[in-house]
Amino acid sequence: MKILNPLLAAASALFATASAGVIGHCPVQDKFCMSIGVPESSAASGSGNIYFQVQSVADQYSWVAVGTGTIMSGSNIFVFYTDGAGNVTVSTRRGTGHTLPQPQSDTRVQLLAGSGVANGIMTANVLCQNCESWSGGQMDLQGKSSAWIAAWREGSPLNTQSADARITQHQDTDTFRIDLTQATVTQDANPFVTGAAAGTGNNGNTNSGNNSGTGAGNNGGIGVGNTGGTSSTSGSGPDMLLIHGVIMTAAFALLYPLGSILIVLVRKWYFHVACQVVAFIAMWAGFGTGYTTARNTGTLFKDGHTIFGTVVVSAMVLQPILGSLHHHYFKKNGTRSPVSYAHIWYGRVLMLLGIVNGGVGLRAAGSPQTFTIVYAVIAAMSGVAYVACALVAGMRKGGGSGAERSKEDGSYSPNSATADFGPNRYGYQTGQGADTSRNQQYQFQSRGRGSDEQYGWTR
C-alpha cells in the first residue's frame, strides 16, 4: 500500500484558517492522527461541547481508538472503524483494564460533516457534549496537560455499523498530553470543515455520519496542523502484554514441565536444575512485563489474574529451596525425605496453577481465539508428556532392583551415596552365609547414614 503524504499545502492553509486553535497528535505518524478543539465558551464555563477529529488509513487498520486519562481502566474511550458503506462507526466505550472495553451510551457524541472514507482515509469529525466528566473521571477543559491514550489494531477493516461490535486486542498503544489552552477555537461549531453546522450525525452510541463536508484529512493525506501543545509520554513499541503472555507461556507450559521430564529421561540432576533455573528467570521477566502492563492499565491487584499470578510467582520462590534440600539429603542418604515429596508435589501444583492462570489472563485480555487455541495445545502437549514420563518413572520404580530404584529416584552419579556408603566400602557381605558379627559391625558403623532398606540393599 502506498504510504500517504502529509496534507497538501492548500488544504493545510484552509484547515488553519477554519480552526486556528486546533492542535493534535499522531500516535502513528502519517497513518493515525487526532486533533482537538475546545470552544471558548466551553473553556470559560468548564463544561460543554468539545470537537475532535480522528483520521487513519482506512484499509490498514481494523480499528483505532482514543481515550481520556492516562490508563485504560476508567477511561472514556472512543473506538472508530469503517461501516462498510463509505462512512464511519464511532463506538463509545468504558475502559475496564485488561478486559475488552464495554460499549456504553452515557457519553453524548455526534458524528459531524466531513466524516467518512475518501481517498483511502477514514475521517471522523466528532462533537462530544459531555466529555468534561464521566463515571471514571473528569477532564479540565482548560488543562495545560490533559492526558489521553490511543490504541490500534492493524488488519482488515471491520466494516460494520454496529457500535457493539467485538474488537480484537490492540497491537500497540500510545499515551500523550495536550495543552487545551492552545486548542481554543472561537466558534462553538465544527472546526474541521468550513460552513458546517455543529452536528449532522446521531446521538449516543450510534452514527450515520455523512460524507458531505470537506474534512481536513480528505484531501490526500493525514496530519495535524499544530502539534505545539502536545507531548508524547510513551512512544510506540512492542506490546508488553503480548510479551508477557509469550514469556509466561514458555515458563509454565514449556520449561517447567520440561525440567521435570528431564529428571526422568536423562537422570542427571544438573540438566533438571539448568532447565528450571532458566524457567525461573523467565518467570520473573514475565512477571515484570505483566506488572508494568497492569500498572499502566490500572488493573494491578484489581482482577483475578494479577492477584492469582502474583501469589503463584511468589510461592515459586520456595521451590528451589526445597529442591536444594532434597538434593543434599539424597546425596547424603541415598533416599527421599518428606522434603523430597514436598518438592515434587509443590512444584506440580504450582505448574498447574500457573497454566490455569495463563488461561485466565488470555480471557481477561480479550485475546484472539487463535492465541487461546495455541496456548491450550501447548499446555495439553506438555501435560501429556509430563504424565507419560511420570508413568514411566513409576514402572521403573516398581520393576527395578532396590539400588536401581534409589539411583533413578535421585538421579545421582555412581560416585554418590551408594558407592560411598554401601556394604562393599566396608568389606562386609550381605545375604545368606554372611558373617553375622561383621554385619552387626556394619550396621553399627552405618548408623546415621540410613538403613540397608533405605539404600535398596537386602540381606
TrEMBL record:
Designated name of the protein: Related to cellobiose dehydrogenase
Record-annotated DOMON domain positions: 30-155
Transmembrane segments: 241-262, 269-287, 307-325, 345-366, 372-395
Alphabetized PROSITE patterns for the sequence: DOMON
Coiled coil, from the record: none
Record GO cellular component, one term: membrane
Signal sequence, start to end: 1-20
Top-level taxonomy: Eukaryota, Fungi, Dikarya, Ascomycota, Pezizomycotina
